[in-house]
Design brief:
The protein is 50% helix and 9% strand. Strand 4 and strand 5 form a beta hairpin. By secondary structure, it is of the alpha/beta class. The N terminus and C terminus are likely disordered. It folds into three domains: 86 residues, no CATH class; 123 residues, Trna Endonuclease, Chain: A, domain 1 (3-Layer(aba) Sandwich); 186 residues, no CATH class. Helix 10 packs antiparallel against helix 11 and helix 12 crosses helix 15. It is globular.
Length: 486
């Protein structure tokens, strides 16, 4: 019989009823499932599970077969099944790209609102090798206000239609927000139900539907569609080539590279500074990095340094510069600006050592031997010696705070100058970004590059020196002191 020619398992429809129809009917339903987003190549774009299922954990990523497709189909069995599933390959590709395009659109709107944006960044935790990625963030936005207070946002984008899984996704996002300590979380969906809005208000999570997103995009039509890390072609290609080149650069630890590229945007200032300093030491030990790895990693280090300085500058309203200096010095030495126990222990060890030396001298003197003065080195002084670049960093912090109106925009300026202009892009020239390229921005960017050279070494800073040659006369500035200062 013809039915035996198609060894399909019963396909379960959305209403959970058994659909064991004729081969042609089953084939049409299977094709419809694939067209709806149930791609075997990317199950992350598949329709969300029914509300009765649990979706607290992150949904399965690539390689997870779609539900409702038989084992024979997954193994590439029946010729007729393959023809039915692949009848409209362009539609399947379109569905697969809907999620990435929605992330790009949301990231573009966030950037035009004044935030530094990264797409599809992993969240890493301490774990065994290969299991350190907990999940990923569709859109990470870092906002800086006029007082240089930093706000981090996570935006989760779901391109699938329907309301299935909406409550579970809100609960998952709320938990991730608290785990990361972010100030803002937003769920972006095609449509939002009344129940979803009520639950979001209880959880303190924002919601954004695609219709509202489209309205906001209309008021930002002047901005380029792609640029830098907002899926800019040159930036994406440079990051891809960097991934390939890093496989042959064994002197750069993968954890350090991952921290600079992803974790630094949500790290404490002292953690970012220590990573930048470590990166500089590794570069000096291993020699000049190839292009574009040199520009890409140095650019991420510059972003990490600038964000750390902005965060510390925001603290100057309640801490003095000398206190920032001491805390930074302690953090560089001990890893924690509030932990000086190691230094106190070394000071006690010095006291004990000096006491024992005096007793030995006294014993020799009592025996008639001439006293020989011997100056013992101090363990505390050896370990607690402040790096020479710490005062330079604190000076940068004070410069940021003195011109907060420009400093708050500097992360975006660095993003466009390094990850668009320096890598060969043209989007940075758009009039939409003119306000990010003034003489004041160049002044602070130059100061940041000099600080980067002090911390990470001249080789790292010089790889980015070309960005100072860009046109920074596109916007009128407001700084009231001489822009010719170094």
């Amino acid at each position: 019989m013809p039915d035996e020619e198609l060894p399909l398992e019963p396909v379960v429809s959305e209403d959970n009823t058994d659909q064991s129809d004729s081969p042609s009917t089953a084939e049409e339903k299977l094709g419809a499932q694939v067209d709806a987003g149930s791609s075997l190549d990317d199950a992350s774009d598949a329709p969300e599970p029914d509300e009765s299922s649990s979706e607290i954990q992150e949904p399965a990523k690539q390689g997870t077969p779609s539900q409702g497709v038989s084992a024979n189909t997954r193994a590439g069995g029946s010729k007729r099944v393959r023809r039915g599933a692949g009848g409209r390959p362009s539609d399947v590709g379109t569905k697969r790209n809907l999620g990435a395009d929605l992330e790009r659109r949301v990231g573009r709107v966030e950037f035009t609102d004044g935030a530094l944006v990264r797409l599809r960044g992993p969240i890493r935790v301490e774990a065994d090798s290969g299991r350190d990625v907990l999940t990923d963030i569709d859109v990470l936005a870092v906002d800086v206000d006029g007082r240089l207070r930093v706000t981090r946002s996570i935006l989760e984008c779901k391109s699938g239609k329907g309301q299935s899984g909406e409550p579970d996704r809100l609960l998952w996002l709320s938990g991730l927000q608290r785990f990361l300590g972010f100030e803002r979380a937003v769920l972006v969906r095609q449509t939002i139900s009344r129940r979803g809005r009520a639950l979001a208000r209880r959880l303190g999570v924002g919601m954004l539907d695609v219709a509202t997103l489209s309205d906001r995009e209309k008021t930002r039509a002047w901005a380029p569609e792609t640029f830098a890390h907002i899926d800019g072609a040159q930036c994406m290609e440079a990051e891809r080539r960097t991934d390939v080149q890093l496989k042959g650069l064994g002197h750069l630890p993968s954890d350090l590279v991952a921290f600079l590229r992803h974790d630094a945007l949500r790290a404490q200032p002292h953690e970012a500074i220590r990573a930048v300093a470590t990166f500089g030491r590794r570069v000096s030990e291993g020699g000049v990095l190839p292009q574009p790895t040199r520009e890409v990693l140095s650019g991420h280090a510059l972003v990490a340094l600038s964000l750390a300085a902005i965060t510390d500058a925001g603290e100057l309203d309640r801490r003095s510069p000398s206190e920032i200096l001491e805390r930074t010095s302690t953090a560089v030495i001990t890893g924690d600006p509030d932990d000086d126990q190691v230094l106190n222990l070394l000071a006690r060890a010095d006291e004990l050592t000096n006491l024992m030396v005096r007793r030995v001298h006294d014993a020799y003197g009592a025996a008639g031997a001439a006293r020989l003065e011997l100056q013992m080195p101090s363990l505390h002084d050896l370990v607690a010696q402040r790096p020479s670049w710490v005062p330079v960093y604190v000076d940068l912090v004070e410069r940021y705070r003195a011109n907060s109106a420009v400093s708050r925009e500097l992360l975006q300026t660095i993003e466009l100058a390094v990850f668009d202009a320096l890598l060969g892009g043209e989007s940075y020239k758009s009039p939409a970004f003119d306000h990010l390229f003034s003489t004041e921005h160049r002044y602070l960017l130059n100061a940041t590059l000099r600080c980067l050279g002090e911390i990470a070494g001249p080789a790292v800073a010089e790889s980015l020196g070309a960005i100072l040659s860009l046109d920074f006369s596109r916007s009128m500035g407001t700084r009231d002191h001489d822009v010719s200062q170094p």
